[in-house]
Design a protein that fits this description.
The protein is of the alpha+beta class. Helices cover 53% and strands 10% of the residues. The two termini are 36 Å apart.
Length: 447
């Protein structure tokens, strides 16, 4: 290899490094506030079972009289709390002394009614749209902004993937001597080295877990999730009923469809509710289990496991006449795509192998916050006065075909990222590069 060729290769690697450094910087600038928000709200969601149990502690252990009321009487007591309400489901008891829990519906708006199983006293009611789970879902997945918030979260998640991948390239040790600054931070070398090492070392330790969390959250995203659903429909791999929703509006629409049909079945012939509930309890499904009444489209009782560890979920159809099992749907019987997504969601929520899964999720969230804080400190320590402080561009540097193809593939796989790249490119070339003060502040080269 001639020296000229070798010099060109070194120069090419320098251009790539500087280019990815700038991408890393701007990706962080876009998504750091969102990453901190998602890490904090996601950490709360990890411990949802424990938090919900604490909120329900007052109805978890009741003083029993020894004369339990019939299931029909319990349902009737719950329905009496709201005129015109219909039965949406019965939550099977997980402990013998806890309150009976009945789901009632009023035009798709569901309320959970806690009924004393002996005295039929109404202990409390809970709007299902205002539970801890739904509150965290709206905070974590929608920023309390509905569909628009979901788009912002998806945009931030897409750029976070770019931030992590470019960070891994920048971290890759090229001339390091030893593992200091690579796998553990070097102490006693001043603030500059400390913050640089903290950022790099924490990044390498949490990157794989962070990428998993970001990727496993995509099926919930509005644009990516809808595109994923359409691709599955085109390829004939779509499930009859998807096991996750894309938004609060999507969930409410499902409730409207289900409860509207169920409203036509006030009187259920055949086996009594006590028989149906007893048959459902005997199945020993992973809790919580919701028993839903027959509808016009599905004239059977369904005992549905809503276990957060989704591989444990199972749905069983019961005959309205006898309560006997008519059909069974298990996690292992789902399409392999649904199994992969289900395992990913369970791990994302910290329930695949809890409590270790919860601890790993919490450590990953703490690592992401550390990355964001250390990045901000390094930026402010390095940034000159009066400018943004972006890594300076290389004059007349051209993006190679390999990088261009990679950008294109990322834009296709992450549609919101692709759209944002087109918009950013149009604004940069059409406005910012032609605006001297903006060009100088952002560190852009001339148009």
């Amino acid at each position: 290899m001639t020296r000229a060729v070798e010099a060109r290769e070194v120069e090419g690697r320098g251009v790539l490094y500087r280019t990815l450094w700038r991408w890393h910087f701007y990706a962080g600038l876009i998504c750091i506030p969102f990453v901190i928000w998602l890490a904090v709200t996601g950490s709360v969601y990890l411990f949802r079972p424990q938090i919900e149990a604490w909120f329900d502690r007052d109805v978890a252990v009741l003083e029993r009289t020894g004369t339990p009321a019939s299931q029909q009487a319990i349902v009737d007591a719950a329905l009496a709390t709201r005129e015109g309400a219909t039965l949406a489901g019965i939550v099977l008891p997980e402990q013998p002394d806890q309150a009976a829990r009945v789901l009632i519906s009023d035009h798709g708006a569901r309320t959970r009614v806690y009924v004393h199983p002996d005295t039929l006293a109404i202990l409390k009611t809970q709007d299902e749209s205002n539970t801890l789970e739904r509150a965290i879902f709206k905070l974590h997945g929608e920023l309390m902004l509905g569909e628009n918030g979901s788009y912002l979260v998806e945009l931030a998640a897409s750029w976070a993937i770019v931030m992590i991948l470019t960070g891994l390239y920048l971290w890759w040790p090229r001339s390091a001597k030893g593992l200091g600054g690579v796998l553990y931070p070097r102490l006693g070398r001043g603030a500059k080295t400390f913050w640089r090492d903290l950022h790099a070392v924490v990044g390498i330790w949490v990157s794989a877990f962070a990428l998993f969390l970001l990727a496993s959250g995509l099926p919930w995203a509005s644009v990516w999730g809808a595109a994923f659903k359409n691709v599955r429909a085109w390829t004939g791999t779509a499930p009859i009923s998807q096991d996750w929703v894309l938004s609060s509006a999507d969930e409410h629409a499902q409730h409207m469809l289900q409860d509207g049909a169920a409203a036509m079945h006030h009187e259920h012939g055949g086996a009594s509710l006590d028989v149906i509930v007893a048959k459902a309890e005997a199945l020993k499904l992973a809790g919580p289990v919701i028993l839903t009444p027959p509808t016009d489209k599905q004239p059977v009782w369904w005992a549905k496991s809503n276990a957060q560890n989704r591989p444990q979920r199972e749905d069983v159809a019961l005959s309205p006449a006898t309560g006997e099992v008519m059909a069974r749907s298990t996690f292992g019987g789902k399409h392999i795509i649904d199994q992969i997504v289900g395992v990913g969601i369970a791990a994302h929520e910290g329930q695949l192998f809890a409590p270790l899964n919860q601890i790993l999720g919490l450590l990953t969230a703490a690592g992401l916050v550390t990355l964001c804080v250390s990045a901000f400190v390094m930026w402010r320590r390095r940034a000159p006065e009066g400018v943004l402080g972006a890594p300076p561009p290389i004059p007349d540097a051209k993006v190679g075909w390999g990088l261009a193809v990679l950008i294109g593939v990322c834009g296709l796989l992450l549609p919101v990222l692709g759209i944002s790249l087109l918009l950013i490119g149009a604004v940069e070339w059409g406005v910012l590069r032609r605006w001297p003060s903006a060009r100088r502040w952002l560190g852009l080269s001339r148009a």
